[in-house]
Amino acid sequence: MLLKDKVCLVTGANRGIGAAITKQFANEGATVYAVARKQSSLKGVVNAINSEREGSVIELYFDITDTAAAKQAIMQIKKEQSRLDVLVNNAGIMRDALIGMIPKSQMVDIFETNVYATIEMIQLASKLMLKQRSGSIINFASIVGTSGSAGQTVYSASKGAVIALTKSAAKELASYNIRVNAVAPGMIETELFLSYGEEKVAEHLKTIGFNRLGTPEEVADVCVFLASDLSRYVTGQIIGVDGQARI
Known about the structure:
- This protein is α/β, with parallel strands linked by helices.
- Helices cover 47% and strands 15% of the residues.
- It has a single domain, classed as NAD(P)-binding Rossmann-like Domain (Rossmann fold, 3-Layer(aba) Sandwich), CATH 3.40.50.720.
- It has helices at residues 16-27, 43-52, 67-81, 104-132, 143-147, 153-173, 191-194, 198-205, 216-227; strands at 7-10, 31-36, 56-61, 86-89, 135-140, 178-185, 238-241.
- Strands 3-2-1-4-5-6-7 form a 7-stranded parallel sheet, sandwiched between helices.
- The longest helix is centred in the middle third of the chain and has 29 residues, at 104-132.
């Protein structure tokens, strides 16, 4: 019950790492507002959690790039809970393209979702956290944000930006006892990663020291640590969850 009585907001909660975080947070006693874009896409996750876990999950449906909708969601949490303890900026998009074949529209879409929306969510959530003078913000970077990756110039750049904004926000919000950290996953066993195909996955496995893919639950465990009081003196950190990957 590391998150007992904490109010948390998790974006991109309907599958993969986001769903795992939502489940782990609820299992640790939190009230979790789970966010997804597609209506009803959270039903299966939420029903399973609410019947098995100690905490509870509340569905929210909106596009994180929609400022008005994001603001309305924060206002709903304020009205219903009067506080927000944890924000997890997990939602993001990944589209690959080689240099010379990257359309401007792809750059805009990736940065709007991965960077601009993250900054906006931090601004909105921190307004509640500033008043209560406490909070934990967890952003999602990536191993490619620190190491780069061929064919992923724009995505890598967006995750590099997340790392930079995490460090800056941590400095700005530290005096209010608001912690800002980022998780940088490596190759995790999600539907998205497995969609690359067996041959590509096998190729990537050769670059991982642990010789296996990580699981969404292993990423979620790190998020539980960052959301809980166990990390009360940790801020401005980028924590890799990559099994000693060498990309």
